[in-house]
Amino acid sequence: MSNFTSHTVDTAPAESKPILEGAIKQMGVVPGLYSVMAESPELIKAYTQLHQGFTNTSFNAEELTVVWQTINVEHECHYCVPAHTGIAHSMEVDPALTEALRNRQPMPTPKLQALQDLTLSIVRERGNASKETLDAFYAAGYGQKQVLEIVLGLSQKVISNYVNHLAETPVDEMFAQFAWK
After folding, report:
1. How would DSSP label each residue in 25-80?
2. 87: closest CA among 19, 27, 46?
3. How far apart are CA 91 and CA 87, in angstroms?
4. Following CA atoms 163, 18, 153, 55 in sequence, which dihedral angle do they give, to the nearest 10 degrees?
5. Are 177 and 89 in contact (CB under 8 A)?
6. CB neighbours of 6 closer than 8 A, spacing ≥ 6?
7. Assigned domain for 23 exists
8. Which domain CATH number covers 113?
9. How many C-beta neighbours within 10 Å does residue 36 have?
10. Domain residue limits at 139
11. Model's pTM, two decimal places?
């Protein structure tokens, strides 16, 4: 069991309180991930900024989900896989895509497969994607901008996945129906 503190708005450092209050306004609760991150105002600020930045990239809801879930599953994040399953549902992403991602199955289109392949390559090879993988990504219709946007998404997911591993963050009740192992 983890010894990390799960903060509330009342117990969080002052600099973290506005983010927790914003989460309550948006979601009705403080997600477990935020409650742990609140211990470090710098971390929770960075994470939320990266999240906002990644959601504002050129990727659509399906593509955001492919990047997020590919990384979550590869990192075996017990918290983020269910959370992003719920987020994908709220973004009206096809549940078949979400299930394929959760179960490491092929993507439904060649373009999404190229996105997943490059994302996995970047994660597994620590940014050293092969020329063949990059060429397939470009041939699928993506460009250098999207390569860099994957790096942005990975930056966000490294923070959340690693925090959840270290803190053993319990899956929030709102995402419990999407539990994953």
Report:
1. HHHSS--HHHHHHTTSHHHHHHHHHHHHHHHTSS--HHHHHHHHHHHHHHTT-TTH
2. 27
3. 6
4. 150
5. no
6. 32, 35, 36, 169
7. no
8. 1.20.1290.10
9. 25
10. 58-178
11. 0.95
User: pLDDT digit string (tens) for 42-76?
Assistant: 999 999 999 999 999 999 999 999 999 999 999 99
Q: Count of CB atoms within 10 A of residue 17's CB?
A: 17
Task: Give the integer Cα–Cα distance in Å for 132 and 159.
Answer: 29
- 137: closest CA among 160, 158, 153, 114? 114
Question: So what's the pLDDT on residue 1?
Answer: 52
Is residue 32 in a domain?
no
Name which of 69, 67, 78 is nearest 32 in CA terms: 78
Inside any domain, residue 30: no
Residue 104: name the closest of 149, 152, 66 by CA: 66
Q: Is 20:35 a contact under the CB 8 Å cutoff?
A: yes
Reading the block at residue 124, the tokens are 């597994």
- Contact (CB, 8 A) for 123 and 67: no
Which residue shows structure tokens 């990727």? Answer: 59
Residues 6+ apart with CB under 8 A from 124: 74
What is the rounded distance in angstroms from the CA atom of residue 167 to the CA atom of residue 129?
30
Under-70 pLDDT residues of the chain: 1
Tens of pLDDT, residues 123-141:
999 999 999 999 999 999 9
